[in-house]
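Quick log. Single chain, no ligands specified.
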Amino acid sequence: MIAHVKGPVAAVTVTSAVIEVGGVGLQVFCTPATIASLRIGQPATLFTSMVVREDSLTIYGFADADGREMFELVQTASGVGPKVAQAMLAVLDPERIRQAIAAGEVSTLTTVPGIGRKGAERIILELKDRVGPVTGASHTAGGGVWRGQVHEALTGLGWSAKDADAAIDATAAELPEGTEPDVSAVLRDALRTLGKGRR
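-> predicted structure:
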């Protein structure tokens, strides 16, 4: 297993980064918050989890070991694969996931795309005794935090703060009222908006 990768950032996209390790560019799939912390040409260290399938070998990267451990833990629950696990960490940070599972917060887990009520109840049932101690309060991607994550990701990809804000405002106007936005989806929509502006 590849536990971490370290090297200069060769490329960054909406969902992944390429880290150069020993002359080889490794594509690592990351959450928007992790992507936002990376800069092309700058050194980076990502804690990684490798998912091996018959026809693929995929590396997921995290800014810290806690993110990687939560990614691997939630996949031990029935019906949770790497894509749903990554979506959980895109919407909720590891401590918030821990809190939600420990407290049985079904509504918090269902804010994650791909997790319905039954899935959330199953995750809570199977992982409640395995998430470890819950510490201080944390936050979800709602309540304005998601805006900061999307803004950081856009500016990290080279857009100006002014353009990023305008794209986020345009995207936010189309979101259903009272719902927790999916950070990855908002980022994609904002990039589409910015792309149209360049034509």
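The two ends are 44 Å apart (CA to CA).
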